[in-house]
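Thread: "does anyone have the structure for this chain?"

Original post by V.I.:
We have the sequence but no experimental structure in hand. Need at least a predicted one for the grant figures.
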Amino acid sequence: MNVIGTRPDGWWKNRHAAMVKLVDLLERWAAAGGEDVTVVFEQPPRPPIRSTVIEVAHAPRPRRDSADDEIMRLLAAEREPGGVRVVTSDNWLADRVHAAGASVQSSESFRTQLEAE
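Reply from O.Q.:
Generated one for you, tokens below.
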């Protein structure tokens, strides 16, 4: 939701549509650049959002910071966390990601990248 929230385009009126739009942007970006992408939502999208290009994940239980915890769980499972980039605007999550050995990109700069593709 950090990436979605970088644009005050009324996304909060239809969160599901905003999530679908983000997945679409990520699919195009990943396909163009050959990047492996996982997007992590706070809760399962209803209806589900599926992709054959990127991984669409969600926290097991919706609650505050649940997506952050899921990101950290996925990062801990990585053999080479130094090759992982996490996109967030959350300073606390960024500190945890750096401590795990991965890199961080701000949501704003990443959203700009996505929209430039």
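V.I.: this helps a lot. The first strand starts at residue 38 and ends at 41.
O.Q.: and The chain has a mean pLDDT of 94.
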